[in-house]
């Protein structure tokens, strides 16, 4: 992927394109949070219930802070771990006075910093993106971009094919509650998360 291609992909997403992109775990559908109609298209492509909020990807802690995320002690401990950037998503509360307009109706986010050069470069150009696995809701996420695209209810505007993905979802850690709760076990085990959080 050449530098101009990155800028072209980023420009299309910032203009409202729904893109099928590779991450460090699975292929995902990515969209700018600034385009409500594009977000609705993403929901239709997946047949995802609109009542389910979309996860967010960011390139850095600085981008995360700009979202108004409440980085409590557990969140900071996870952000300092070897698993981030990587396959760990965090559920965080929002400081509503600091959130951008597109988050004004939400009191929490699920957010991740991927350990993937393509996605990190893209996110630095676009800013935070809404990114969810590229599969029809209720079905497994395919390993290839082509298989993922074929499963969707329609076609995304842009497909970035960088080969097979690992097909292991991120581990989801809820840092809003004390003690933090592992909501979904994925690439990082419960034992590894607890060992980092509690020194077990």
Number of domains in the coordinates? 1
CATH superfamily: DHBP synthase
Tally the helices.
7
Helix and strand string, N-terminal first? HEEHEHHEEHEHEEEH
Largest sheet at a glance?
Answer: 9 strands, mixed
- Output mean pLDDT: 92
Unreliably modeled segments: none
Q: What does this molecule look like?
A:
The chain is of the alpha/beta class. It has one domain (3-198): DHBP synthase. 31% of the residues lie in helices and 18% in strands. The chain contains seven helices and nine strands. The chain has helices at 3-14, 36-46, 61-66, 73-79, 117-126, 145-151, 190-198; strands spanning 19-22, 27-31, 56-57, 88-93, 108-112, 129-133, 158-159, 171-174, 181-184. It has a nine-stranded mixed beta sheet, sandwiched between helices. A hairpin with a 4-residue loop joins strand 1 and strand 2. The longest helix has 12 residues, at 3-14. The protein is globular. The termini are far apart. The mean pLDDT is 92.
List keywords for this structure.
single chain, 200 residues, alpha/beta, DHBP synthase, nine-stranded mixed β-sheet, 18% strand, globular
In brief, what are we looking at here?
The chain is built from 7 helices and 9 strands, in the order αββαβααββαβαβββα.
SSE topology sketch:
Layout: H1 3-14, E1 19-22, E2 27-31, H2 36-46, E3 56-57, H3 61-66, H4 73-79, E4 88-93, E5 108-112, H5 117-126, E6 129-133, H6 145-151, E7 158-159, E8 171-174, E9 181-184, H7 190-198
Parallel strand pairs: 1-7, 3-5, 4-8
Antiparallel strand pairs: 1-2, 2-6, 3-6, 4-5, 8-9
Helix pairs in contact: 1-5
